[in-house]
Design brief:
Helix content: 40-55%
Strand content: 5-15%
Distance between the termini: 37 Å
Strand order of the largest sheet: 2-1-3-4-5-6
Largest sheet: 6 strands, parallel
Shape: elongated
Radius of gyration: 19 Å
Length: 200
């Protein structure tokens, strides 16, 4: 029996997934979590074989849940199940240790088949998204991502500089380089583009 934990903040989606997967003879849903913090706690306590994790969930993001479980509960394999068909999210999920990345519009039979495949040690990734991810590598470095994330929170250049202990001139240079790499003319456009790709 494959023991599954569902980490999903939308109650209707979580309940539907649990009900449908419970109809499978070889799959048992042993727990449901409505946020990332609870998901980590239940996974560490109950030791499921598979965790189905949404990306945008409260308290701790799905990507952080995957990274934490990959480190602290290596026998629990994670599959991202999300509405976001973003190459950047896929890249970050795989880097965090996810063994699968599926979209919520997939058929439950496909999800069950993916659970079995990952349980056996395989990987399952949405094919079209994988091809798109290969063709759209994130051009931004780690420091550039941090600076753009702070800018996305509404911080001015001076505030960004103070928060990460850089000079204002250095932050301006980073922002200029970011806009150049993304071929946009404002930081707002850079934020929109990076967010749409899942890079932030």
């Amino acid at each position: 029996m494959i023991r599954v934990l569902i980490v999903e903040d939308q109650g209707l989606v979580r309940g539907a997934l649990a009900s449908l997967l419970s109809l499978e003879e070889d799959i048992e849903v042993i727990g449901e979590a409505g946020d990332g913090e609870e998901g980590i706690r239940l996974a560490l306590r109950d030791e499921p074989d598979i965790a189905l994790v949404d990306i945008e969930i409260p308290k701790v993001s799905g990507l952080d849940v995957v990274e934490t479980l990959h480190r602290q509960a290596p026998n629990c394999r994670c599959i991202i199940v999300t509405t976001f068909a973003r190459p950047g999210y896929l890249q970050r999920a795989m880097k965090a240790g996810a063994m699968g990345y599926m979209l919520k519009d997939a058929k439950v039979e496909d999800l069950a088949r993916s659970i079995r495949e990952v349980y056996r040690g395989g990987k399952v990734i949405n094919h079209e998204l994988m091809l798109e991810a290969w063709s759209q590598d994130n051009p931004l470095g780690d420091r550039e991502i941090v600076i753009l994330q702070l800018a996305a929170q509404g911080m001015a250049t001076k505030e960004i500089a103070q928060s990460i202990f850089l000079s204002e001139g250095t932050v301006r240079n980073y922002l200029s380089e970011i806009m150049s790499k993304l071929d946009v003319s404002t930081r707002q456009e850079a934020i929109r583009m990076a967010t749409s790709k899942g890079w932030l």
